[in-house]
Design a protein that fits this description.
The strands form three sheets. The protein has a three-stranded mixed sheet. It has a two-stranded antiparallel sheet with strand order 1-2. A hairpin with a 2-residue loop joins strand 6 and strand 7. The chain has 138 residues and is of the alpha+beta class. The protein has four helices and seven strands.
């Protein structure tokens, strides 16, 4: 390994969390540490799962959800979530949309990602509540 490979890089990203007061997804600008072997998408999703730094915002991803894999091909980020993503889905359609668009908007804030394709345990979930996730979203 060269010394260059071991360096930590910084990734600027906009993570989207819920502002409970307005009910809207709100961007939180963050500098994320990108370590050797990590992809930009993994780092962004990890930060989303950890939640916001701003105490006035709340995380929207379902409890105990984990990211099984990510890959980016031709501008589309393919994200594979654990089964908890579906099992712990929020009840209201607005909350379901917030979950999906928190992921999509956060990942699309990275320059080389234009759309996001979500799967669960390696298969297309079709719909996430009222949101069609069988196609890439942007």
């Amino acid at each position: 390994l060269s010394q260059m490979d071991e360096e930590v890089r910084t990734l600027r990203a906009r993570l989207f969390f819920l502002d409970p007061e307005s009910g809207a997804l709100t961007a939180e600008s963050r500098s994320l540490q990108l370590y050797e072997g990590q992809t930009k998408a993994e780092v962004v999703l990890e930060a989303l799962l950890q939640g916001p730094e701003d105490p006035n915002l709340t995380a929207v991803l379902p409890e105990n959800t984990s990211v099984l894999s990510t890959r980016v091909e031709e501008g589309v980020c393919y994200v594979n979530f654990s089964k908890e993503f579906l099992e712990n889905m929020p009840q209201s359609m607005q909350q379901q949309e917030n979950v999906i668009y928190s992921v999509v908007k956060s990942l699309c804030s990275i320059s080389d990602i234009q759309a996001v394709q979500i799967s669960v345990e390696g298969t297309s979930a079709g719909y996430y509540g009222g949101v069609d996730i069988s196609v890439p979203l942007s």
